[in-house]
Amino acid sequence: MEQPENPEQPIMADRVIVNGCVTELTLTSNGKLKFTERGQRSLTVEKEVLGFATEGSKIKIRAIVEGGGGGIFCVASSGALVRKDIVVESLSEDSLSLWSQKLRQYIDSLGRPKRLFVFLNPFGGRKSASKIFVDHVKPLFEDADIQITLQETQYQLHAKEVAKSLDLTKYDGIVCVSGDGILVEVVNGLLEREDWDAAIKMPIGVVPAGTGNGMVKSLLDSVGYPCTAPNAVLTIIRGHKRSLDVATILQGETKFFSILMLAWGLVADIDIESEKYRWMGSARIDFYALQRILHLRQYDGCISFVPAPGFEAYGEPTSYHGKSTGKHDSCSPSEEKSVKVRHHGYQGPNIDLENLEWRSISGPFVSIWLHNVPWGGEETMAAPDAKFSDGYLDLILIRDCPQLSLLSLMTGLNNGSHVKSPYVMYLKVKAFFLEPGPRTKDPTKEGIIDSDGEVLARGKGTYKCDQKTPMAYDKLQITVDQGLATLFSPI
User: Fold this and answer.
1) How crowded is residue 73: how many other Cβ atoms within 10 Å of its Cβ?
2) 167 in active site
């Protein structure tokens, strides 16, 4: 039987000067750079080498390592990323040229992006995106020899407009230095293009710089990395990719493409109505959540869904409800062109909904929450079992719950333990219908439907109900297209 090749087989080895010390430098076939400098050292090219530059008779290797153990230089607290240059001086001109050639060949073989289009939202979150870009994004991309084209967003849906018309042949990926909102706009813009089926394959990266950083938190947490800008930028530089499910929310002819979540009831009310306390900063969410629990609302309504295998016991059997009517009420006049999808765009997944096994649950409900990824924000693990591309949405449902139990349940959102509460139904669904109704104690008032941090619909008597919304407070349908989009991912 033929033995496998030695992964440590040298591609090149030579006697050089590294940071002023004469040593043997070896590049192995599995991408290790080995040398001696105050003891045996090694760099993993794929993980730790950003790029390099030839300067006269020297090669400056630009690396980033973990301090405090595991890396090659222990100069920071454990886990902190540290920039370090390794200067290699060759003892001959021919050797220098060959080292440059071999390093370039190996780095190019990793399939890293070379040209990126970067959206920066200067208004999101704490308005820190510009500083994050200058301090972390730009320097690391420059070290990795990545060319960037920067676009600051000026208004809502600006990123969507640009994504719809961007010449994608010029780029290897799109990066959003923002919260989740710009990412959602980009996905919606790509899916409204004539060439949507090719466009949506464009890898998208996210650098946390907003209020909600649920997607990048989910990506980095999947490998145990802290949710920081340097970790996010390194994820993009390394160029690994993974698929992401996209949900199509349909009402009449109006579509919205969701990649994070949809909420109705308690979570939507807290998310949207707490904006009136924005002056409190991040404390506004906790403050308003307490208000809503103390003055708890329930909503009449009904949900229908196609359960994933293993979840067929939830609900009662029902039949497919057909397309939503898309009728509008006085509080939701919403035929906005910006959210209309031309027929040449993506029309949603091709699923035979009529012949699926549908189940239904009737209200009243405290909360309906659908999630595509585990984290809804950096401190909210909404759906601990959610997967990026399993073809299902995770449904977190609360029909009734005592206030004290609800308060305890909400404190478990930071680690996902809330789904173990006896008051929570937690299941996976392939398709979903929401038929929202009024508040049980005040039928003259309705609710808010929130998707990916934006208001899809405002019912009668709700916060800012006079504002236009993409959809009506009425029946809507959600279907999932497995692995439709592509993200830069740590693995």
Assistant:
1) 17
2) no
